[in-house]
Amino acid sequence: MPRGYAPVAVVLLLAVTVVAAAAVATAVPALPGDPPPQRGVAADATSDGRVAVTLHAGESIDIESATVRVAVDGEPLAHQPPVPFFAARGFHGGPSGPFNVAADQSWAVGETASLQVAATNSPELRVGATLTVRVLVDGRVVAVGETTVEKAS
């Protein structure tokens, strides 16, 4: 390689490095921030549609920023609980605990929230099915509880 080309090669390498660094710098701010703190929940469900979710560990959850998603054997309920609520399509009556609109809007460790899935909602909670409850805060999953649906007593 003739000597006159070496400075050109160095300038080109420097330009490529600057462009690559700029691309990385613009991508980094677009990355999501720290994930929300994780919580521990336990779920219980019976074939008459009763679902109870207990917060076992982690920080309290502000119900106003929470979303709850319920699935049976991996299939989401047609009508999801719009927490907090009192009466909602796909649910029988009002929920209890933090899911109820009249309750304290903070779901603390040890508290149980419950609801009853109506027979008009699908899929049905049948004995032996796996019920999964996902709790999201600001759209991000912070807890997952899973249980086997038991026969109602």
Task: Sum this structure up briefly.
The chain is built from one helix and nine strands; from the N terminus they run αβββββββββ.
Describe the sheet with the most strands.
Answer: 4 strands, antiparallel
N- and C-termini, Cα separation: 87 Å
Q: Enumerate the strands of the largest sheet in spatial order, edge to edge or round the barrel.
A: 5-4-8-9
Helices and strands, in order, run as HEEEEEEEEE
Low-confidence stretches: none
Q: What average pLDDT do the residues reach?
A: 87
Number of distinct beta strands: 9
Beta-strand proportion: 25-35%
Q: What is the helix tally?
A: 1
Helix content: 10-25%
* Rg, Å, rounded: 25 Å
What does this structure look like?
- The mean pLDDT is 87.
- This protein has a four-stranded antiparallel β-sheet with strand order 5-4-8-9, with no helix packed on it. Strands 1-2-7 form a three-stranded antiparallel β-sheet, with no helix packed on it.
- A hairpin with a 2-residue loop joins strand 4 (66-72) and strand 5.
- The chain is 15% helix and 32% strand.
- It is built from one helix and nine strands; from the N terminus they run αβββββββββ.
- It has one helix spanning 5-27, and strands spanning 40-45, 50-57, 61-62, 66-72, 75-76, 106-107, 112-116, 130-137, 140-148.
- The protein is elongated, with a radius of gyration of 25 Å.
- The termini are far apart.
- By secondary structure, it is of the alpha+beta class.
- InterPro entries: Pilin_N_archaeal.
- This is Type IV pilin.
- Pfam families: Pilin_N (PF07790).
- Residues 8-74 form the Archaeal Type IV pilin N-terminal domain.
